[in-house]
Write a structure and sequence with these properties.
The chain has 13 helices and nine strands. The protein is an alpha+beta fold. The protein has helices at residues 3-13, 19-22, 26-41, 47-60, 74-86, 113-128, 136-142, 163-167, 172-178, 208-221, 248-264, 277-282, 288-301; strands spanning 64-69, 91-93, 104-109, 132-133, 147-153, 225-228, 238-244, 273-275, 306-307.
């Protein structure tokens, strides 16, 4: 279709044929309409799905907004449809242009804004109350952008490591050789008794990976909503955590307990500090891997909850 014929179709769909032009939003609506028509031409969408969108346009006279719903789970989307239908909200689920990003877009009538916002808040609270690890975009959407970043000494840069942690420093090739089952009989007889148990092969909680898993278990147990950000300056003894700002008291309480625990083991740990998004990105330096990570995170951060029409 040409832009002229598509515009004519849109005006015909409107019961009055004036709202699109009067509000100056015809260009944005036309762009969305052409996107959907292109998907139909590519056999991504069927005729029925296009007709459903046209029906929505006619019912709302183009007075709609688009919102990101932070889920792609079938059962949650089915529940969303049930909820919105019960609330008599005029909406349509838009084609998913990025399957796997954890988001679904719907268009809804501006007249139903208050009801949609009330439902959205309830949806977010339900997903936040149990806490747990989340993707950055999901965390941003569920908290409406209220996300903070904590810079945590993890593990302490000056802390001693145990035997298991030492083994974990090996590169992948050496680790292959370390997978061979241990034979305690090969050790010095005057050091290992004859009845010594076979050395444990599993990773100790004291290893770097074990510490990280323990951290996640602690945050999950406290129902903190968080994401372990990529370490763009590995080896410096710090870990960055993005978390829901509302969970700040719980994170602070956890860290204070962690400090006391480490101190009882003879290791003093510095205080946790807040850092801005810009400061976090600066930790990457000029390394290619860091710059690639920055691009990925900036793309996630730019994802907006709502996309109002002009």
């Amino acid at each position: 279709m040409s832009e002229i014929s598509d515009t004519a179709t849109l005006i015909k769909l409107s019961s009055q044929g004036t709202y699109f032009l009067a509000k100056g939003s015809v260009k944005a609506i036309l762009y969305l309409y052409q996107t959907i028509k292109k998907l139909q031409a590519a056999n991504v969408l069927g005729k029925g799905e296009v007709e459903e969108f046209e029906k929505f346009l006619k019912a709302t006279e183009g007075k709609y907004r688009i919102i990101n719903i932070p889920t792609e789970k079938t059962e949650e989307l089915n529940q969303m449809r049930e909820d919105l239908n019960q609330m008599h909200i005029s909406y349509t689920v838009l084609p998913d242009l990025n399957v796997g990003d954890g988001q679904t877009q719907i268009a809804y009538a501006i007249a139903d804004t208050e009801k949609v916002e009330a439902w959205y808040r309830s949806f977010c609270l339900d997903h936040l109350k149990n806490g747990g690890e989340k993707q950055y975009t999901e965390l941003m959407n569920l908290t409406e952008g209220q996300v903070s970043i904590a810079n945590i000494p993890w593990p302490p840069a000056d802390a001693c490591i145990d035997e298991y942690a030492y083994a974990e420093t090996a590169d992948p090739e050496i680790k292959k050789n370390l997978q061979v089952p241990s034979d305690s009989s090969s050790g010095p007889k005057d050091f290992f008794p004859d009845d010594a148990e076979e050395l444990k092969e599993e990773i100790s909680v004291a290893t770097l990976e074990g510490r990280l898993q323990q951290l996640k278990q602690d945050l999950d147990g406290l129902r903190i909503n968080y994401m372990i950000l990529p370490d763009m300056n590995a080896g410096k003894g710090y870990l960055q955590i993005a978390y829901a700002a509302a969970d700040a008291p719980k994170l602070k309480a956890w860290y204070e307990l962690y400090q006391k625990t480490m101190l009882s083991e003879g290791t003093s740990v510095k205080n946790m500090k807040e850092m801005s998004w810009e400061d976090y990105l600066k930790t990457a330096g000029k390394r290619p891997s860091g710059e690639k990570t920055i691009q990925q995170l900036q793309k996630a951060k730019q994802a907006e909850k709502t996309v109002p029409l002009p």
